[in-house]
# Entry
Amino acid sequence: MMKNCRREILQKIYSTPLDVWPPHLDSLSQKLSRLSPRWQELMEIYDQPPAPVAEFLHSPLYLNLGDRVYPVVEDTLRQIVSGRYQEAAVCWGIGSGKSFLSSLAISYLVHRTLCLRNPQAYYGLAPGSTIAFLNMGASAAQAHRVVFSEIKHRIDGSPWFHRFCGDDLKILAGEIRFPKNLLIVTGNSAETCPLGYNLLGAVLDEAAWLTQTSEGRHDAAEEIYHALQRRIRSRFFDQGLLVLISSPRHVGDFMERKLAEAEDHPALYASRRALWEVKPARLYRGEFFEYEGLQVPVEYRDDFRRHPERALRDLAARPTEAYQAYFTDVEALEACCDLPGPAPLDEHGRWRADFRAPDRLPRFLHVDLGLKHDACGLVMVHCEVGQASRLSDPVAPEPRFLGDRRDAYPTDPEIFADLVCRFVAPEGGEVDFARIRELIADLRRRGFNLAQVSFDGWQSVDSRQILKRQGFRTALVSVDRDLAAYETLKALVTEGRLHLPRHEVLLTELRRLELVRGMKVDHPRGGSKDVADALAAAASEALKASSGGTVGGRIL
# Structure
């Protein structure tokens, strides 16, 4: 048996009195002589055995955290460093200790690697190669100020790290250096940050909130994740560990995708917990109220009353439809769906036989074209102005909508959607533009007075030219150049002057729309807004024509 595994040698390394020596080392010393040759061979790879997680967290020799570690945090750390997982996705509410968990995970991974006699030889690296552990945050400031400061505090306050590393422990401004060419480095949300390192372990903190690109809607999480994953697996195969820690942002964000992926990948650990599921029960009174099926401590009642969606996201770790929702009044959107009738298309994709114009009011139709991986939105509307609308009482013009929305009277211009359609490209195929044009031409044959057929700018030249030769008035309308069209649509929704047949895709798109930097309305990554764009363009063009104003989208 190797002499450096004996208790006397370990005692000399630590310079620690026997009466405070970790119990697991006592037990190890007593059993070394009885180990099988195979286990003795395995023990030869260690200078000393790594401490179990509980010992590492609580013992005065290591981090000496006592009861400052929530049991859920300790159990989660034990799970993710158990060796059963290559990745971990931890989605917890704000204030639950995610950054604290990040610092513990990095600290323990370094401790475990330092205990190896020759980490480079163990992992098959060239002698003298640097093995790095990376903490990356949503920004350089967040990574350095929050988690890296926690890591430095853990390392600097640990007797074990100082005694084991001696003068080779260098705690610097942006990195911590250890003997055996081990390194902890902090990073920001740049895809190139991990380049050049032999990454054995990495923690991506607040993964759902990484810095956005200039377009505003696409976060960097996917690219950063793959960059980290490549660095770990190319050097260490399945022996490395990538930990993703965050509160959720919105439905379909990066963390939500990883949590869903974990259902089919046994090497991916997943955890979603509300704030009150991480904090010990002793911190609460034990009284609860119910919100959307959740049992929430009464201590958070005011948070759910003031901002229910934000509280659901930030405290309960349940994602919202959008990060900064453009349409904040979901009830107002639902109230707009007050027109009866099924979808006007039959099972063959043609207009139903009974779908005909009830009057000669001018109609405004907008087509938002898509191709292979997209869809085509088509919406036709008309405006009723200066008369009692079909939903109003012409004798007693009382407001139809109350609450936070401005009262809408029958004399206000109101928009009615005659049809809302979405055409999806077949798998491996394309949206059939000719079919869309034929459907538009058929509307005129069915008696609809098409005052204008507008398109967005994407591949619409041919369709506009063909329809123009058929006698249609066409226009090129963009809703992405400014907020005008969507601001018009929002006013219609808020004031109760928009009337729609119920269309689930449209409602989902509207609920998930985000206001990006106060300048643009867009969908979150993985979402769509084809039908929403078509509605915004058609509605704003109809209002513009009825009033002679310029509230519509920009005509190019």
Q: What stands out?
A: The first strand starts at residue 87 and ends at 92. The radius of gyration is 31 Å.
